[in-house]
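Ops channel
N.P.: pipeline sanity check, posting one input/output pair.
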């Protein structure tokens, strides 16, 4: 037993040594080959020209509650897909998300973004509860396989948060402006077809969306369809639930949301 324990300690020690060596090497490379921000921006925008359909993946819309008049308000921003695309071009850096700890009540996850060139690090942590409240108001525990899905959804949220905190505001703004320009120039039929494919993939009821928005898909304007695509991106990425995005689901099906218990720090 002691031999096994010692072997495990040696592996941990070796692993830490490898991580330190990798970080040192990355920092040395960043000095020798500093990033060219103008090239990164140009490549990021060119990607949207090459793959214009990416524009429909790049934005998310997330409901944040009703205002004093009872109208639903939302926030908009770049999705995890857009964040990862930009981060992959932001040279001399690395990012990732890991399960830090787990107990009977919850799991702690952490997203990290390392900038070797600027020698900075951003960390976002989130505690994910193993329990949710069902439609009858009862507190129920997730099954193991369902909790794995919840963890993955929350990892996407944490990654999006840490990546977008770490990248320059100008890069994000220019990219978002380009995305919106592409969406504005797209045909309404393309946007509608993309939306129909998306809701089928996510198993969202068309009737639910139309009841929530008060009109048929065929009667919606381009801006309205684009907003719904943003909502479906938010659902796909675990930023919100179907019920929160389209708050008029009357079915009795038990669908727990993927919200994180606690706050991001």
């Amino acid at each position: 037993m002691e031999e096994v324990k010692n072997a495990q300690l040696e592996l941990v020690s070796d692993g830490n040594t490898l991580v330190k060596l990798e970080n040192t090497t990355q920092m040395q490379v960043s000095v020798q080959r500093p990033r060219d921000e103008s090239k990164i921006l140009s490549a990021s925008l060119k990607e949207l020209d090459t793959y214009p359909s990416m524009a429909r993946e790049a934005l998310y819309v997330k409901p944040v509650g009703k205002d004093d008049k009872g109208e639903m308000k939302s926030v908009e921003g770049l999705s995890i897909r857009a964040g990862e695309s930009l981060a992959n071009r932001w040279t001399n850096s690395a990012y990732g998300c890991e399960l830090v700890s787990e107990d009977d009540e919850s799991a702690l996850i952490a997203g990290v973004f390392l900038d070797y060139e600027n020698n900075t690090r951003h960390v976002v942590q989130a505690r994910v509860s193993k329990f949710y409240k069902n439609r009858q108001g009862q507190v129920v525990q997730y099954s193991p396989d369902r909790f794995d899905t919840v963890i993955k959804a929350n990892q996407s949220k944490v990654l999006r948060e840490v990546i977008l905190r770490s990248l320059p505001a100008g890069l994000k703004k220019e990219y978002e402006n380009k995305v919106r320009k592409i969406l504005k120039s797209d045909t309404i039929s393309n946007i509608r077809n993309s939306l129909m494919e998306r809701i089928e993939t996510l198993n969202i009821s068309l009737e639910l969306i139309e009841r929530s928005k008060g009109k048929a898909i065929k009667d919606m304007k381009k801006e309205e369809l684009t907003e719904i695509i943003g909502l479906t991106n938010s659902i796909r990425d675990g930023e919100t639930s179907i019920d929160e995005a389209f708050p008029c689901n009357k079915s009795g099906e038990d669908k727990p949301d993927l919200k994180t218990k606690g706050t991001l720090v």
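N.P.: looks fine end to end. Confidence is low (pLDDT under 50) at residues 11-19, 249-265.
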